[in-house]
Design goal:
This protein is α/β, with parallel strands linked by helices. It is built from 14 helices and 14 strands. Strand 7 and strand 8 form a beta hairpin. The protein starts with a helix and ends in a 5-residue tail after the last helix. It binds adenosine-5'-diphosphate (ADP) and magnesium ion. Magnesium ion binds next to helix 8. Adenosine-5'-diphosphate (ADP) binds next to helix 8.
Length: 636
Amino acid sequence: MSRLPVMSASKRVLTSTSSSGSENGQDLAPAQKRVRKDPESVKPQAAATIIGGKRPAVAATRAPLSKPVRGMGAATVAVGPSRGVMKPSMASTAAKGGNTKQPVASTGTKAGGGAAPRRHAWDLKGKVSDMEGKLRNYQTKVKSVNQENEVLKDSMTQSRTRVGQMEKELVKQRNQISEYEEELTTLSGVRDELEKVSSDKSTLQKELSNLEGKYKVMETLRDSQETELQTLKMKLSVQESTLARVQATLRDTEEEVRGLKETVAQQEDELHAGEMERRRLHNTIQELKGNIRVFCRVRPLVDGGLSKHLQLPASDNKMITLAKTEESHTGKTADTQKNYNFSFDRVFGPQASQHEVFEEISLLVQSALDGYNVCCFAYGQTGSGKTYTMEGDEFDETRGVIPRAVKQIFKAAEKLAAQGWEFTFTASFVEIYNESLRDLLYTGKANKRPEHEIRKSANNEVTITNLTYEKVSNEDQVLGLINLANQNRSTAQTAQNDRSSRSHSVFQLDIEGVNSGRDVKCKSTLCLVDLAGSERMMKSQSQGERFKEMTAINTSLTNLGIVIAALANKESHVPYRNSKLTYLLQACLGGNSKTLMFVNIAPETDSLGETLNSLRFASKVNACVIGTASANRKLS
Ligand code: ADP
Ligand code: MG
């Protein structure tokens, strides 16, 4: 850029030079022509010619020769700088275009270097004029050189100005360059950034394409889900309509259920009232039948059948006749037969099954569940079937009163549960031997058996200290307890002493029922007692331990009879305390309690005496009941 003005300046110089040169050229050409035509006349022009001769060399290189050359003065000034300056150019010209300008150069050389016609030595005037001519020539030359110098100075000034400008411009440019460099640095930073951005972009693009792929998958998924949604919506609407229908049905049903619930509640009330009424009526019947009842049961003979001395009329199941043949004391009269008639609430012959026997007392068992205390005794001589009646054998058919009663109670409790009753049952098994108590459910060490005492609480509840009270809820548990009791009894007896027949065993089941919905409670005890053998021994036969046993048994059995009689006669004083048995059972014997006594009879002839005793004892009890006060309460 900066070069351009310089070029133009030199051009201008050259142009002016060439123009002057051309003018000079124009002048020159005729002068050269003139020289050739008239060498003499152009002598003084020789220098000009020489100069001109030099010019074409410049002109040849700098300007086209075709241009006409005008007046030589200006041309000489313009073209010919100082010699020194021009010399190289001349030399180069000579070297380069020596051939073309040769004729002119040779002409010039001739003019300057003595090419003019040689003067004779004498022609001083001529020589002087030549010299003057030369001088003029040089003067002209000097003038033109000076002019040229001026021009060059101008040009130089211009150039300097230009250089100044250019320097300024250079500084400006440099500044600009530094600016550009800064910009470049910035841009390179930008480029780095750009690269980063582009790499980011490519990453993002990849990610984008990834995401696009995913998006497509999602779209497909969405489409499928939308389809599914549509299906579900349809299903939902179907379900909703179904639901609405079902809800309507439900409302109807609820309405119906409400109605039914009301009916049920009403019926439950009625049922409860019915149950209470049943209890009342049942109790009335039991009371009418007698709160104290006596049943007689005759054991079969070992080989079956019935012994002759015992007669049970087929038409009446309440009668028993004992026929006793009495030998004549003198031996002169015939033996007399005496019949002893006894009447009881019920007489069971040897064929009576356990089931039949139980049926009669099951009503009393029901009373126990209704909240009345029930006591059932088995009285009779050893081997008469007391244990068989109370406990029975292990088979279902031959099970006795205890397991059957318990079974009935559990069953009935289950039924009552539907009416809101909840029952708890606690069993205990105690033996009274020689007026002392023994826990038959004891499972501890034999030498650590605790002592027992009968305690009576303020509300007339009787408990035994240190006794095992076992919670039971099914028949099997009770059977297990019976087994345990039998084991405990057998360990106590010896070969000579059949202890089980010399002791009373008392099974007690405490029953507690709660109907929390109706705020009703009931509490009762079912006592099933297997009494000690009632047989009497000849006093002479009994000694020591046996005598003691016998006395204890007699006392307690007699006392039992007395207590029952006192109760039946509603006597003010009932001697419960006279024996452990009555003291223990006092809660189950008085008041609204139901008492049942089994009189067990052995059919063997040799047991006749004992049978008579037993029947008399039972009859006494029964007579008390039939007697005055209770007569109207008995259902015969
Ligand atoms: P106790 O307990 O009064 O001493 P048991 O109940 O032990 O008498 O009876 C003695 C025997 O007679 C036992 O073998 C028993 O099985 C049997 N026995 C008692 N009563 C009957 C009966 N009603 N039917 C069949 N066998 C009986
Ligand atoms: Mg027995």
